[in-house]
């Protein structure tokens, strides 16, 4: 009986050592973007744990001021560590569901400028934008046109409204009401051309099939970065822009 008991604990000890060794190897050699306990680095490719790391910066609607400040400070530091110039944006309360807390404004640095700039956006949305810019937009522009994107022309982030501007109280609030969505209208490249969702989505516009190819590629890539991505393929309300947001639901269309 004593021998069986000793054998059991020896086995448990060996298993524990094996688990520790496996963890040490994983921690040392696995890509950091795949390990949830490693800090988010925006210079790394997308990984298995990227989405969860970005979600750590999300601010729940009922979060305390201390929780908002803690999550936002950590998010801002992640952006700054990646060479992105960013400043906190003031809170906004337009009543009801139109409340913005823990938002930031990207002011420059190692990221493609938003035009117009000075946008207020939730900090996790800013993180998603930087990831999309580096991992999706720039590689796609280089691959298709051999030219870098120099501006992302947009219709803004914040708007106190329900989805599609509906006045029906049964319709849910838009993510724009929390500055948690970005509407991308077109992309301007270093070679001077502008690829527009309205004009180039179907491949019949001034940039032909290459323009359509770029837009569809950055839409598909956005689906790996943002929670919700809506394009002209979704409905007529999005015929002139790509809607990118960080809502907890998942939809790519």
Automatic annotation (TrEMBL):
Residue ranges annotated for the Extensin-like C-terminal domain, each copy included: 74-249
Alphabetized InterPro entries for the sequence: Extensin-like_C
Database matches in Pfam families: Extensin-like_C (PF06904)
Name of the protein: Extensin
Species per Swiss-Prot/TrEMBL record: Brevundimonas subvibrioides
């Amino acid at each position: 009986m004593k021998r069986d008991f000793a054998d059991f604990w020896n086995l448990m000890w060996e298993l524990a050592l094996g688990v520790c060794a496996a963890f040490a190897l994983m921690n040392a050699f696995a890509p950091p973007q795949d390990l949830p306990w490693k800090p988010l680095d925006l210079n790394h490719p997308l990984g298995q744990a990227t989405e969860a790391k970005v979600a750590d910066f999300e601010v729940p609607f009922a979060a305390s001021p201390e929780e908002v400040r803690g999550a936002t400070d950590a998010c801002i530091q992640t952006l700054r560590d990646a060479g992105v110039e960013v400043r906190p944006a003031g809170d906004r309360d337009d009543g009801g569901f139109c409340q913005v807390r823990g938002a930031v404004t990207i002011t420059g640095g190692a990221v493609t400028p938003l035009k117009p700039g000075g946008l207020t956006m939730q900090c996790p949305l800013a993180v998603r934008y930087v990831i999309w810019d580096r991992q999706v937009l720039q590689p796609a522009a280089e691959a298709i046109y051999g030219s870098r994107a120099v501006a992302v022309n947009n219709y803004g982030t914040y708007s106190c409204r329900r989805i599609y501007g509906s006045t029906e109280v049964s319709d849910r609030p838009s993510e724009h009401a929390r500055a948690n969505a970005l509407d991308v209208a077109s992309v301007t490249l270093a070679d001077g051309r502008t690829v527009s969702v309205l004009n180039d989505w179907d491949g019949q516009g001034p940039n032909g099939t290459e323009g359509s190819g770029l837009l569809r590629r950055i839409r598909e890539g956005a689906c790996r970065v943002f929670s919700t991505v809506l394009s002209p393929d979704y409905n007529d309300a999005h015929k002139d822009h790509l809607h990118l947001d960080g809502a907890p639901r998942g939809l790519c269309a």
